[in-house]
Write a structure and sequence with these properties.
18 strands, 2 domains, D-Amino Acid Oxidase, Chain A, domain 2, 382 residues, 5-stranded antiparallel β-sheet, alpha+beta, FAD/NAD(P)-binding domain
Length: 382
């Protein structure tokens, strides 16, 4: 089988993988991104980017289109843009395409299925070898599921550009306009044994939600479901990682480390999954860039130590995000008994603002590398 050598290999062309590739590109480091899908993944239709995510995107550069106004704004590397003043909802695919535009042609290889990653010695140094086919425990289910879709109104929806939420016992739903004709909506509920069956058929998903989940909801939300583009409808369990697996788990092995959902899958209740992935990219790029400057290139032994610095910096931050997201969803969708009502009151009065302050986070800056790296091979693909 053909052996190809690469400086850096990133597994997965999600938000974390793409953003990390862009961060390394800013440092003059060539990275190959391997993605098992046949194209960019857009599961979830949209996501909300809060101030911490905009700060990270500011460092990565490129441009982002505000789907509410249609305006495209350039993001300067290392400069303030003013767009990070508050949360904004964007198409997930638009974000991925913006990141992909910042990468050189051929940087992403689709339909790449990973068999195994192993370590081999080369000149006395451990080298990761990735085998392609034609430490941490697996994520666990939170006991809840999420239904997401994109409602399309060809003649316009006539709504204000503001989000709305609806809460019932065991249910939480909401929508946010993306443009004058598109509205992103979502519903979280207790997991159903029929989930796997429904996940395979968008029409079944729509009928099930309308008949058994939102029949007592306001008509405006039902209208969103009725106008959904069936190709965007998804039903999936909400997964997360046990916090102790992140704190005590092996997040690095040799020159291989984790980022994004591979490190910290979390429920969407704080809207921080994608935002934390962008933070990961900048922090990882910063540690690799500092190693590059200090050692004059990517030295395998030194990179392993610098990846430890990345892990130490990220693990407590993302652990609290995972805990805060899970707790926020559990308390808001709990039952209606007196104990849960008291907990919900205490949560909103004393804890909600503190947990929500997680968006006020600056992940730091990428170092300025005064040279393009002319490096030895640090990874192999087979």
């Amino acid at each position: 089988m053909k052996m190809v050598e690469e400086e850096v290999v990133i597994v997965g062309a999600g938000i974390a993988g793409m953003a990390t590739g862009v961060a390394l590109q800013r440092l003059g480091i060539r990275a190959l991104i391997l993605e098992k899908s046949q194209g960019l993944r857009a599961t979830g239709a949209a996501l909300t980017l809060t101030s911490n995510a905009w700060l990270a995107l500011d460092l990565l550069g490129g441009s982002v289109t505000d789907v509410g106004t249609g305006a495209t704004q350039a993001i300067s590397h290392g400069g303030a843009t003013g767009i990070g003043e508050g949360p904004r909802t964007v198409h997930r695919k638009t974000l991925l395409e913006s990141l992909a535009d910042e990468l050189p042609i051929g940087a992403i290889r689709f339909s790449s299925h990973i068999d195994v990653i192993e370590t081999q010695l080369q000149d006395g140094s451990p080298i990761p070898v990735i085998h392609l086919s034609d430490g941490l425990g697996s994520p666990v289910t939170s006991g809840r599921s999420a239904v997401r879709g994109l409602a399309v109104f060809p003649e316009g929806h006539g709504l204000k550009q503001e989000s709305r939420q609806f809460v019932d016992v065991g249910l939480r739903a909401g929508f946010v306009p993306l443009s004058d004709k598109e509205v992103y909506w979502g519903l979280t509920c207790l997991s159903s044994p029929k989930g796997e069956i429904m996940a395979a058929d968008p029409e079944v998903i729509r009928r099930e939600v309308l008949e058994n989940y939102v029949k007592d909801f306001p008509e405006i939300f039902k209208d969103m479901i009725q106008h959904s583009d069936l190709s965007t409808l998804t039903w999936a369990p909400l997964m997360y990682r046990y916090p102790w697996d992140i704190v005590f788990g092996n997040l690095r092995k040799g020159n291989v480390t984790l980022a994004g959902d591979a490190m910290h899958p979390m429920t969407p209740d704080l809207g921080q999954g994608g935002c934390a992935a962008l933070e990961d990219a900048v922090v990882l790029g910063r540690h690799i860039g500092n190693s590059l400057i200090k050692n004059g290139g990517l030295v395998p032994g030194a990179i392993a130590q610098d990846l430890d610095g990345y892990v130490q910096e990220r693990k407590w931050r993302v652990t609290w995000l995972v805990i805060g997201s899970y707790f926020s969803g559990w308390i808001q969708q709990g039952g209606s008994n007196r104990w849960m009502k008291f907990l919900r009151y205490a949560f909103y009065k004393y804890f909600f603002m503190r947990i929500s302050s997680a968006v006020d986070y600056d992940c730091g800056k990428l170092p300025s590398v005064p040279f393009s790296s002319e490096l030895g091979n640090s990874k192999k693909i087979e």
